[in-house]
Structures are given as C-alpha cells and as structure tokens.
Write a structure and sequence with these properties.
- This is DUF4365 domain-containing protein.
- Pfam families: DUF4365.
- This protein has one domain (about 5-40, about 75-170).
- It is built from 3 helices and 11 strands, in the order βαββββαββββββα.
- A hairpin with a 4-residue loop joins β8 (about 125-130) and β9 (about 135).
- The protein has helices spanning about 20-40, 95-100, 170-180, and strands at about 5-10, 45, 55-60, 70-80, 90-95, 110-115, 120, 125-130, 135, 140-145, 160-165.
- The protein has about 190 residues and is an alpha+beta fold.
- The strands form 3 sheets. Strands 2-3-4-6-10 form a 5-stranded mixed sheet, with helices on one face. Strands 1, 7, 8 and 9 form a 4-stranded antiparallel sheet that branches.
- The termini are far apart.
- About 20% of the residues lie in helices and about 30% in strands.
C-alpha cells in the first residue's frame, strides 16, 4: 500500500497565514503540552489570558496516597534559540513580573516553567513532519519546578533560570511529577 508523501510543515512568516510567528510558537507550545498530558492520561484546563503567570493547568483524575485529582500549573515558553541549550541545562531569561507570579509563595497549586525548544531550517520554523503513518515534531520541552527557580531581587528586570536537560517534559516524567504531587511530595 502506497502512503502519502511526507509533508514538512515549515512556517516562514506570516505569508503562510495571518498568525504572527510568536503567536504560532505560543499555540504550538500549548498544543505540544496538551499532547503529552493527554498521552499521560491527564486532562488540561486553559487560562485565557494568563494574568496569573500560568498558561495551563494539568489535572489528574486519579486518587493518590495524599490527594485525589491533583493539579499542576505551567507557564510555557517557546524558542528557536538553540544557543540557550547547554550540556546539562537550558538557560532561560525571565522578566521579573511573570517570574514573581510563577514563583509566588502563596500559589495554591504547584507550578512548573516549561520551555519548548523548536527547530528551524533555512526557510523558517520547522514545526511538524507528517505523513499517513505519523506526526513528528523534533521539538522538546525542558521543565523546572517554580519553587526551585529562586528569587529575583527588587529592582532587577530579568533573571536567567536553568532548566536541567534531565527534566525532559515527556509522558513518563509528567506522570512522575503528578505522582509526586499526589503523594504529598510538593
């Protein structure tokens, strides 16, 4: 049986559609996160707009030792800037206001920062490769607990945080994160 030819979806700017590249990146990071969450067996709540410093909340419907239906909040970022990627971590510059919202000590649900690193080719963003058998993205997301991002001094405009490369946002790690929360480990 002959399959469909492989299609590479490359975004070269607003010529391909009316959505600016930055908006495409924002939506792609949410879509990526949703796919991982759904594959892990969780549901997702949206925050539109994200005034509280988070983009989505991932929810478990399971009962763990300590909690039933635990939740985790995520602030998502997306970049093609591969120079942020180092041997053992991804560096990410955060502005003070969203940093303080994400790391606020009175935040009810545990929170994560997730940064999606997407590839580029000579023609623009390379978001997807797709054919009849698969949907592939060469993107990957790194994460860190908001509580582990530290603090930012008053008057400082930005802070560079480090997300360990070992913290790859995938199904197995997301299930582990939720178990940690459900067992009262956070």
């Amino acid at each position: 049986m002959a399959g469909l030819p492989n299609q590479r979806v490359t975004v070269a700017g607003s010529e391909t559609g009316s959505l600016p590249i930055t908006a495409q990146q924002e939506h792609f990071s949410v879509a990526f996160t949703r796919m991982v969450a759904y594959a892990a067996g969780f549901s997702v709540k949206s925050h539109e707009p994200d005034y509280d410093g988070v983009d989505i909340t991932i929810v478990s419907s399971a009962e763990y030792e300590t909690y039933y239906c635990p939740e985790i909040e995520l602030q998502l970022k997306c970049t093609t800037q591969h120079h942020y990627l180092h041997d053992d971590h991804l560096s990410w510059p955060m502005e003070a206001k969203p940093f303080r919202k994400l790391t606020h000590p009175k935040r009810y649900n545990p929170a994560l920062l997730g940064v999606l690193l997407i590839p580029e080719d000579d023609h623009g963003l390379l978001l997807l490769e797709q054919d009849e058998d698969m949907l592939l993205t060469r993107s990957r997301m790194y994460w860190q607990w908001a509580r582990d991002l530290g603090t930012i001094p008053d008057g400082q405009a930005t802070k560079t945080v480090h997300l360990p490369r070992a913290n790859l946002f995938d199904v197995e790690q997301l299930q582990g994160i939720m178990e940690t929360i459900g067992e009262g480990g956070v």
